[in-house]
# Entry
Amino acid sequence: MSSSVEILKEAFFDTDHVFRAKDQTDQYTVGFSDNAQNMWIKFYLITSHSKIIDVKYEVKGCQYLVALALLFTKSIINQDIFSLADFDYQSLVSMIDLPKNRQDRLFLLEDAVKDCINHFERG
Amino acid sequence: MAAALDDDLLGNASSLDHEFGLGASQAIELARQDIAGLINAQTGEIIWTSGATESNNLALLGVCNFKPHDQPLRIVSSYAEHKSVIEPLMDLKRKGHHVELIEPNKHGYLEPTSIEKAMEGGCDLLSCMHINNEIGSVNDIDLIGSMCRERKIIFHVDVAQSNGKLPLDVVKNNIDLMSLSAHKIYGPKGIGALFINQKTVGRLQPLMSGGGQERAIRPGTLATHQIIGMASAYRLAKSSMENDLVHLTECRDHFLRLTNEIKGLMINGDIHNTFPGIVSISLPDLHAESLLFAMDKVAISKGSACSSESDEPSHVLKSMGLGREAIEGTIRVSFGRHTSIEDIETLTQSLKKAVDHLRLLKGGI
# Structure
């Protein structure tokens, strides 16, 4: 079993779900959020009805935010988009041993997800 | 240092009744000569402390607390100082002393005109650092010292970054108080010293009480092994200072040549007035913390090691007028006596790889 440091490192360097220029923007439901420290995250969700088929992201921030983006992405594929409103963000905390003074990064995820749901609802 | 932990020097330097204590005391006095010799001070003007942070606290609080309470002092310093200067000054301000902090110029050093202006309203004590720990910018302590001496202002200099690296002369530079550290020049951590000019300052109010060591200005049993370690580091630094400076300049210039092609990279400070051992660079489109995380096999930092736990933007970069994005994307690269040209190449390769990775993450590639 990988340690939290290894998970953090692997997730930080994993670029499989990073949004690329070749990806078609109009296929996606997009959600964005940023904070005063110039960190931001943008999710791109492909859905079929309300089921999430694929997720891409772009991110700028500390290593924890980058790793959270990937871990969150992997955990929501095949979920219903409306179930994200109840997502247990604390489950990500223990995976990478997220320090207390970095836990505000979870708000960024949460806000970007809310933005995705809003865009999805608006069609 | 190892010898100081052997039986011969294991005695308490304050216990002069037996040979072990005497041996330790003699070793400490020899070490004091080494420290004094590097800065052209008298041995009696050197007080051992735990490092530059304590020296800064002792210098500033010690001068102000030595004066009668009903005589508030006027102190001038700058926003670019280390926290171990700024925070004691804030304490003094709360106690009724007048503290004026001036801003450095955009390159991170103090302009004589700003200092002169701040002195106009009256000044009893001026405190500044020699080399800035985040930028490497160098203050002209020779000029500032003469400005202070003309006006009979006590001049305190924090040389934690420059001791053993640049020539220092407390007489020529008109310095009254000087904070010294050991670990920036390969000495042990946890030891430093404060120079107290006997002619102009003489005595300070101690921060602690309960012992007569160090003329009761800094009571407590002296750490013989640490002191000997600091003196050895100073001796080595003195003999290799010129070569070190040439080597650091080569390292810095090589680094700048290799990183020149990184798009958007900004160098903070004026390259002609910065110490070559420190280079501060900003990549405003990236986040410094993740940049460091992405770099392999190198030990570089975001800014000051003393503030690295904090999520707050650097007060030094802020005072130089850098915007939030540039501050968040700033890292400090330091070179040392043992840094090789191969190390610089490893560092720049690692930096370029990290920049590419982070730009891919944010959709820049």
In short: Chain A touches chain B through 21 residues (CB under 8 Å). Chain A has a mean pLDDT of 92. The beta strands of chain A are 29-34, 40-48, 51-60. Helices of chain A lie at 4-13, 63-76, 90-96, 105-122.
